[in-house]
Structure formats: structure tokens, C-alpha cells
Design brief:
Elements: H1 2-6, H2 13-146, H3 151-168
Helix pairs in contact: 2-3
């Protein structure tokens, strides 16, 4: 209660002096014993944070570099794939053209063979017709010789031979 009577803000010179001396001594002890380790710990933490920031920056730069390399590899792979597709299309087009050309050549060869066969068949037919004409002529001649024909009979025989000749053609 005495404190209430005198007041909380009453200054006692002896107590003030010892409080200041104790504060200064405590400050010196802390300065020598604790201040240096606290500052060193803060400096070490600051250095560690700075190192972590630099490592993170290096990692970021390395990641960007790897990303760029990956992007370039992907672009190259894409270009290579497009080139392979283009080469495949060109090869397919060449193969198609080769097959079409070969088919056209085979068709021409078949047409040429057919023409030759037709020509041979025609020649054979003409030869057969000539043989037939000779045979008919011989028959007519033998009939003419064996008979004395009048002009109407001779005309009828010639027309009959010509008609046979036309039907053979």
C-alpha cells in the first residue's frame, strides 16, 4: 500500500542508479556472450536464404534450358515425322505411277498381240478363201468342161461362185 501512497511514478535515485548499472552490465554481457552468436546466426540464415535463392534461380534457368531443348527436340521430331510422311507419299505416288505405267504398257502389248493375232487370222482366212476360190473355180471348170453349158448356165455358175465367195468373207 505504501506504493499507492507514494505513487507509481516516484523516482528513487538509488534504485535508479542500480537499475541503470544492472542494465548496462546485462547489456555488456549480452553484447559479449549472446549478441555475436545471434548476429552470426542471422547472417548465416541470411546467407542460406541467399544461397537458396541463387540455387532456385539456377534451377529455374536450367529448367528453362531443358524446356527449350525439349521443345527443339519435339519440333525436330515433328519435322522428321512430316518428312517421313512426305517421303511415304512421294514413294506411294511413284509406285502408283509405276504400276499405272506398267499396266498401260501391258495393255498396249495385249492390243499389239491381239492385232497380230487378228492379222494372222485374217491372213489365214484369206488363204482359206483363196483355197476355196481355187476349189470352186476348179469345180466350176470341171462342171463347165463336163457339160456344155449355155450362157445362162455359165452366168448362174459364176454368180453362185461369187455368192459363195461373199458368204465366206
Amino acid at each position: 500500500m505504501e506504493v499507492l501512497k507514494e505513487g507509481l511514478l516516484k523516482v528513487d535515485p538509488g534504485l535508479l542508479l542500480w537499475t541503470i548499472i544492472t542494465f548496462i552490465v546485462l547489456l555488456l554481457i549480452l553484447w559479449k556472450a549472446a549478441w555475436k552468436p545471434i548476429v552470426e546466426a542471422l547472417d548465416a540464415r541470411s546467407e542460406k536464404i541467399r544461397g537458396d535463392i541463387e540455387a532456385a534461380e539456377k534451377s529455374r534457368l536450367e529448367a528453362e534450358k531443358l524446356f527449350e531443348e525439349h521443345r527443339q527436340v519435339m519440333d525436330k521430331a515433328k519435322d522428321d515425322a512430316q518428312q517421313v510422311i512426305a517421303d511415304g507419299k512421294n514413294d506411294a505416288e511413284k509406285l502408283k505411277n509405276s504400276i499405272v505405267e506398267k499396266a498401260n504398257q501391258e495393255a498396249k502389248d495385249m492390243v499389239e498381240r491381239a492385232r497380230k493375232e487378228i492379222t494372222l487370222a485374217k491372213d489365214k482366212a484369206l488363204t482359206e478363201i483363196q483355197v476355196e476360190v481355187v476349189t470352186l473355180t476348179t469345180e466350176i471348170a470341171s462342171k463347165v468342161i463336163s457339160k456344155n453349158l449355155n450362157p445362162d448356165d455359165q452366168k448362174a455358175l459364176v454368180e453362185e461362185a461369187l455368192e459363195k465367195l461373199r458368204t465366206v468373207q
